[in-house]
Write a structure and sequence with these properties.
- The complex is a heterodimer.
- Chain A is mainly alpha-helical.
- Chain A folds into 2 domains: 10-93, RNA polymerase sigma factor, region 2, helix turn helix motif (Rna Polymerase Sigma Factor, Chain: A), CATH 1.10.1740.10; 118-211, Orthogonal Bundle (Arc Repressor Mutant, subunit A).
- In chain A, 67% of the residues lie in helices and 0% in strands.
- In chain A, helix 3 (47-63) crosses helix 4, helix 6 packs across helix 8 (164-190) and helix 7 (153-160) packs across helix 8.
- Chain A is elongated and about 60 Å long.
- The N and C termini of chain A lie far apart (48 Å).
- Classes of the chains: A mainly alpha, B mainly alpha.
- The interface between A and B is large, with 59 and 39 residues.
């Protein structure tokens, strides 16, 4: 008899949960709730909706565990469910709510030293806020899954329901667009204008249903 | 076009593996910044974990079940098979050659091989050829009275059959 793995992988936990272990699923929830919430809140722009979608995603995952293929990555599977839930949410609500996230420095998931906090806050504002303002939903999600979830191109393709070639093209266009937008914003900052607009002007366009390309 | 293609190739390389250090290329610099930067996201509400587990305990997961017989699974194959048989029948039936009455008569009367009874075979052949010859050579005036004989013969046969049926217990 072998001792249980003290630090099982997500896929191993998913296999145990599939076999009926609620403890294993509890651990999966603990590992994925923050990741899913952070992914979903970028699209919904509303914490309550994102929390609700996170809850729906994980409950649906539990209900459909019998259909989970252990050969696949659990992260890919659960992010695919989350994305579909988000699409259904947008279809149902029609228009995304334009609520400010109200993020403060205390909200950052950061255990880094305080001296780095200011530099990091500036960095995040420049890159990810710029990405959120300048990219459409699909390129933004591809970029998010690539850099924040560390998914491979194949996994991103599975989550987004696209081919790997398409995802590579999406990532390339997203990087090119973001590099241009970032350079423009930095030039504006050098000339004394605010680097990051308080209300990103493109956000309003992205929130209109016709422009929502998921 | 060349620049676009070069940048696309560089982007594909970044998809596979990050740049070892932030290079001078804009895409490499951006890649390094995206990896380094922390996105501004709030934390989920504190009660989310418990809320998820409460809902999970209430719902019943769909258990894995073994393969079971479902009659509805046979509906489509059965329908397809039936359609195939109908189409096959429609193709084969009109192309069948018509069965000659002589062949049917021979098949029903046949009880042995010609080699076993050569005399019978010869007699039958001779009778058939004589009948064919007589039918082709005899004039209509000769054959006309035979019609009455044929009608009488048919009547006798019918009466014999009725008698046989009536005598059955």
């Amino acid at each position: 008899m072998t001792a249980p793995d003290p630090n099982p992988t997500d896929d191993e936990l998913a296999r145990q949960a599939r076999a009926g272990s609620l403890v294993a699923f509890d651990e999966l929830v603990a590992r994925f709730e923050v990741r899913l919430f952070r992914f979903l809140v970028q699209g919904t722009r509303n914490e309550t909706d994102a929390a609700e979608l996170t809850q729906d995603t994980l409950v649906t995952a539990y209900q459909k565990l019998a259909g989970y293929d252990p050969a696949r990555s659990f992260a890919t599977w659960v992010f695919t469910i989350a994305r579909r839930k988000q699409i259904d949410f947008f279809r149902h609500h029609g228009v995304r709510r334009d609520h400010a996230l109200g993020i403060t420095a205390d909200d950052l998931v950061d255990e880094a030293d305080p001296g780095r906090l200011a530099e990091q806050a500036e960095e995040r504002d420049r890159v990810w806020d710029c990405a959120r303002a300048s990219l459409a939903e699909l390129p933004f999600q591809a970029l998010w899954l690539k850099y924040n979830e560390d998914l491979s191109v194949e996994q991103i393709a599975a989550v987004l329901g696209r081919t790997t070639i398409h995802v590579k093209v999406i990532l390339f266009r997203a990087r090119a667009t973001l590099a241009t937008a970032l350079a423009r914003w930095e030039r504006a900052a050098d000339s004394g204008r605010p680097a990051v607009p308080a209300a990103p002007p493109i956000t309003a366009r992205r929130m209109a249903p016709p422009a929502l390309t998921l | 076009m060349k620049t676009w293609w070069t940048q696309y190739r560089r982007s594909r390389q970044l998809d596979e593996a990050p740049a070892p250090s932030a290079g001078r290329e804009p895409l490499e610099q951006l890649d390094a910044r995206l990896r380094r930067a922390r996105p501004a996201t709030p934390l989920p509400p504190p009660g989310l974990h418990d809320a998820i587990l409460r809902r999970v305990r209430r719902v019943e997961p769909a258990r894995e079940v073994g393969p079971s017989f479902n009659p509805w699974r046979l509906a489509f194959p059965a329908l397809a098979g039936a359609c195939g048989l109908v189409v096959l029948g429609l193709v084969i039936w009109p192309s069948r050659p018509p069965v000659s009455p002589v062949v049917v008569a021979n098949a029903s009367a046949w009880s042995g091989s010609p080699a076993a009874d050569p005399l019978l075979s010869q007699a039958g052949t001779a009778t058939l050829s004589a009948g064919r010859r007589a039918a082709s050579e005899a004039p209509a005036a000769v054959l006309a009275p035979l019609e009455r004989e044929m009608a009488l013969f048919e009547s006798d046969l019918r009466q014999a059959a009725q008698l046989a049926m009536a005598s059955l217990p």
